[in-house]
Design brief:
CATH superfamily: P-loop containing nucleotide triphosphate hydrolases
Order of helices and strands: EHEHEEHEEEH
CATH class: Alpha Beta
Structural class: alpha/beta
Number of strands: 7
Number of domains: 1
Mean pLDDT: 91
Low-confidence stretches: none
Strand content: 25-35%
Largest sheet: 7 strands, mixed
Number of helices: 4
Shape: globular
CATH architecture: 3-Layer(aba) Sandwich
Oligomer: single chain
Length: 160
């Protein structure tokens, strides 16, 4: 069932790193296996900071290196695994399939930095979060846009 606000993006102002961590923690508690969250924004926008806070809220106190060179890191603690992708270095969107991304789409929670690198091969249903700088050096604006019904449901839960 469609809701009138399904197509409306959600803008969240994040005044500090701790506000970013809190938002990531909230989304981590709402996400389920099969949820795909794309983290978009320029270099230094806070994508990896958000991903680290999400993973720690979901998995526990673990080291979360940026997967810029490994392209994917998998985190497990006995529950739903979190696959953290960084697609920045991909030359062609077809390369995502070499990372096992389809398996992750079915059975894990996926955090995908640089989701625009999937163009033409993006999943049919995913939640996009676009980070932009805020008024101060540590503030950000996060704009969430649902692409599909499942993502719209996750976004409604985040808004609640």
């Amino acid at each position: 069932m469609s809701h009138p606000d399904d197509s409306q993006p959600l803008l969240v102002r994040l005044d500090s790193v701790s506000a970013t961590d809190a938002l990531a923690g909230r989304l981590a508690q709402l996400a389920e296996a099969g949820d795909i969250i794309g983290l978009a924004g320029d270099l230094g926008a806070g994508k990896t900071t958000f991903a680290r806070a999400f993973i720690r809220a979901r998995i526990g106190p673990v080291e979360v290196p940026s997967p810029t060179f490994t392209l994917v890191q998998i985190y497990e603690n006995g529950g739903t695994p979190v696959w953290h992708f960084d697609l920045y270095r991909l030359e062609d969107s077809e390369e995502i399939f070499e990372l096992g991304i389809e398996e992750a789409f079915d059975s894990a929670i996926c955090l995908i930095e640089w989701p625009e690198k999937m163009v033409g091969n993006e999943p049919p249903d995913w939640l996009e979060m676009h980070l932009t700088p805020g008024e101060s050096e540590t503030s950000r604006r996060a704009t969430f846009t649902a692409h599909g019904g499942r993502a719209a449901h996750l976004l409604r839960r985040l808004k609640a």
